[in-house]
Amino acid sequence: MTAVAAPAPGRAGALTFVRRNPTLTAGVVLLVLIGLVAVLAPWLAPHPEDAGTATHPFQVLRPPSHSHPFGTDLVGRDLLTRVMYGARLSLRIVIEVLLLAGLIGIPLGLVAAYAGGAVDQVIMRITDVFLAFPALLLSLAISFVLTPSVGNMTIAIAVTWWPWYTRLVRGEAASVITRPYVESAQTLGVSHTRVLFRHVLPNSMTPVIVQMSLDAGGILLTAASISFLGLGAQDPTPEWGLMVSQGAQYFSTQWWFVTFAGLAILLTAIAFNLIGDGVRELLDPRRVITR
Amino acid sequence: MKLEVRDLGVWFADRRVVEVDSLELDRGETLGLVGETGSGKSMTAYAIAGLAPGMGARVEGSVQLDGRELTTLSQGAWRDIRGRRIAMIFQAPISSLNPVFRTGDVFTRALQLHGASKAEARTRAAEAMRSVSLSPDLLRRYPHQLSGGQAQRIAIAQAIALRAEVLIADEPTSALDVTVQAEILEQLQKLRTEEGIATLFISHDLAVVSGLCDRVAIMRDGRIVERGPVRETLTSPQHAYTRELLAAVPRLGEAGNAHA
Amino acid sequence: MIRFTAHRLALGVLVVVGVVVLTFLIARVIPGDPAVTYAGPRASKAQLERTRRQLGLEKPVVVQLGDYLQGIGRGEWGTSYRTKRPVLSDLRRALPASIELVTAGLILALMIGLPLGLVSARYHGQAPDVLVRFISVIGVSLPVFWLALILQLVFAQRLGLLPSAGEYDPNLYYTSPLTSYVQMPLVDALLTGNIPVLESAFSHLILPALVVAVYPAGLLARMVRASVLDTLGESHIRMVRSLGFGDRAILGRWALRPAMNPVVQVTALVFAYSLANTFLVEAVFDWPGLGSYAANSLQALDTPAVVGVTLIVAIVYVVLNLIVDIAQAFIDPRVRLR
Questions:
Q1: Residue pLDDT, tens place only, C121-174
Q2: Domain boundary among C284, C299, C314
Q3: Residue A53 pLDDT class (50, 70, 90 cuts)
Q4: C243 — contact with chain A (CB < 8 Å)?
């Protein structure tokens, strides 16, 4: 009888994880790849100066070739470089929006749930007003008002996104607050802020985390859409949506201009969505299926 | 009518949850299947009704209704058995009713499924409701507008209207108040005496079983450890486990009770 | 049901008022002088002064807001600085076009997404399920404007199968003029039996509607799948199965209705998102709807128009939420109690 050594716990654990969560794994792998491209862009990109203000009037609108695998754009810039730098930008935007929206929305939701009464009503009505609007349209308007740029676009999107988190947190926190350990903390005289942050917050976060991972894809698409309409990133910023709009008028003859930037958006959005799905499956285990 | 179970095995992945060597149910008799949570009693019932594969379980062995093998039946063939010959009632009565339909909708459609015309279905349903002492008007209500007892009686009425021969009752009274329990048990008694329906009664409550059933089978870890006529088995239990179960039944005036 | 509806209606009105106030204030912050836009860049100082008074720009902001709110109630939504026409009439022309597009898109999405979701649930875990899930992930990840450009290139320009822009062939203005009832060419052509326009409008609608449909179809497929699977795990399905019903009856009736609840809830969200996507699609396909109107108004700093568009979208969304709420209460009687 040959003795078979049991696999080291780490490896067995990782393999089972992959098997049980295929979507999450696929999404993470894809995102990591994109992230690597983003982080290493300055070293990987063939013509880093093209991500900035460089122009090459003699290489305008060249088709994909050995030196320019994705072709060149309307001022001769290498599109592969711009797409890579676009990854940096897009990931940054998504993270910033999530952080900002979370920083506004989560505390508001906590306060609404904890204070209750009039405060709660006022906060919820305000969120209702914001939620009465498709995020894209409102952020378009705000972006316009603030003068189009990447930074302002980020702010605009964050401003339209926070109400979701307030709603979610409030709902979850409201039920957490009724739980015994919160009551006992209060009767023991623990200060309100401490109760909020030590007890209520950690236990209300799950739906928010799930929602954020689901939102990442939407935020990316919103940012690209706003830039496509000209109200977000401005030239020479290498934003994917902007590149698609720049290439739109040349599309029928110079197909590469629009295609690669759009593909980049698609792939990144897929990565985010896979992760979002995976996270939801992981943290929402009501999956007992009966036929 | 005879229901015979032989060497029934039910698996969830590699875990065996039911290992019943034999079980029999004859026309008109009430068999109690008793055990604690996890003893496999409910899964045995689901396996008999063919619902186990749908829950992700694997079934082996033989379940025969009047000589017809049920474990190998196709989906389509089950249509003639379920409802028509074998009916079920479940533990949480209101949750067992479809929340977005009026109770009558499901009821009459089930009857139509088994051959009745719309008008016939409605009459039979109304009749069955009356035989469980409920007004047919309740059929116009939605499940959340009913009490637990009413919902369970409607489930029983369904079995009566469908003229099933076997009723599998999976802990039908466990979720109900004691007074309501008594009413349901009364209805189940009537089923036996007036309709001649054989009942497989699953429960963890020995007291209830002793009142209702002719025979009893005690289950533990998926196996039947003792079986026999109810009076005999419960007054002179052979197996240690049965004795344990009996001892655990609280009695008034015993040491350890607060209100002696 | 009546009390439910009235309650929701009241809330809706409140929300709309809030939105108006919000956008009005935002619009006031827009840099640039509306008087210049209205009077034109060559207006003299005196003309600008007159224009300013005419437009009421001298009054304090609060008074302007009050005037505006009053005007709204009376049906006076201001005059567009750009088109010089009443905003309301501009909207009356632009809104139906967008509604037509969104509705067509959503109908398509339902026709595609609902069956896909059901198939996915029925064959849960098997090949059809994986395929549908794969497709739906792509569906919700596609940049709408990119898809629009690609479809336009492939089907309109390269293959010449479908037209690339506009609502219907402009030549038909002369050869087969259309009498307008609802400002929707497709519907009007149907009503008046104007076949050439009907054909043209239909073929012009297909591509844009398809693009609009992709995201909601993907979303619906996923939602329907999840909801049906959840419902299948509930005890009442066990009961129905024990009564003798088979898979087809269960999927088609007993699990379908309860499963629709969360799906209906999502529909309002989906409509809102689709409305936003519609604007993007309008840009690519030259569709004369709200999106184009809003884009032009934003560029021209046309405050009354911008506020008007915002208001109409808010109203549409509130009305939509109301319909969804009522539909939900209809489907699921438990909701009526809330």
A1: 888 888 899 899 889 999 999 999 999 998 888 887 777 777 777 777 777 776
A2: C299
A3: confident
A4: no
Q: How far apart are CA B192 and CA B190, in angstroms?
A: 5
Q: Which H or E element spans position B95? A: none
C168 and C76 within one domain = no
What residues 267-286 of chain C have any CB closer than 8 A to a CB of chain A?
272-273, 275-277, 279-280, 283-284
Contacts of C227 in chain B (CB under 8 A): none
- Which two structure tokens, joined as six digits, stand for A206? 């799950």
- Domain check: are C154 and C235 in the same one? yes
Q: Evaluate whether B19 touches B223 at the Cβ level (below 8 Å).
A: yes
CB contact under 8 A, C143 and A252: no
Provide the pLDDT for residue A4: 43
Chain C neighbours (≥3 Cβ pairs under 8 A) are A, B
CA distance C311 to C306: 9
Q: Is B77 on the interface with A (CB under 8 A)?
A: no
- Subunits next to A (3 or more Cβ pairs <8 Å) are B, C
* CA atoms in the 13 A half-sphere facing the CB of B45: 30
Region B37-64 average pLDDT = 87
Domain A88-232+255-282 has CATH 1.10.10.10: no
* Section B174-185 average pLDDT: 87
Q: In which domain, by residue range, is C11 found?
A: 1-82+301-338
Pairing of strands B198-203, B30-34: parallel
Mean pLDDT of A182-196: 76
* C142 touching chain A per CB within 8 A: yes
ipTM of the complex: 0.86
Shortest CA distance from B75: residue in chain C: C246
pLDDT at residue C284, as a whole number? 85
Is the same domain home to C123 and C67?
Answer: no
- pLDDT for position A211: 87
On whether both C259 and C309 belong to a single domain, the answer is: no
A137 pLDDT above the threshold of 90: no
Residue C263: pLDDT above 60? Answer: yes
pLDDT at C251: 85
Cβ–Cβ below 8 Å for C276 and A248: no
Quick check: C310 contacting A, CB < 8 Å?
yes
- Interface contact flag, C242 B88, Cβ < 8 Å: yes
Q: Do A229 and C275 touch (CB under 8 A)?
A: no
Q: A277: nearest CA in chain C?
A: C137
Cβ <8 Å between A289 and C138: no
The CA-based angle C60-C64-C70, given to 5 degrees, is 145
Number of structural domains, chain C?
A: 2
What are the E-state strand segments in chain B?
2-12, 15-26, 30-34, 58-65, 68-69, 86-89, 166-170, 198-203, 215-220, 223-229
Nearest by CB to residue A289, choosing from C16, C137, C232, is C232
C-alpha R_g of chain A: 23
B53 vs A289: CB contact, 8 Å cut-off?
no
Domain ranges of chain A: 88-232+255-282
Considering the domain architecture, whether residues C17 and C113 belong to the same structural domain is answered as no
Q: What pLDDT sits at residue A25?
A: 87
Residues of chain A with C-beta less than 8 angstroms from the C-beta of C219: none
Q: What is the pTM of this model?
A: 0.76
Q: What percent of chain A has pLDDT over 90?
A: 21
Domains identified in chain B and CATH numbers: 2-249 (3.40.50.300)
Nearest CA to A258 out of A267, A269, A266, A250 is that of A250
Tell me phi and psi for residue B229, to 5 degrees.
-60, 145
- Neighbours, chain B (3 or more CB pairs < 8 A): A, C
Residue C293, pLDDT above cutoff 80: yes
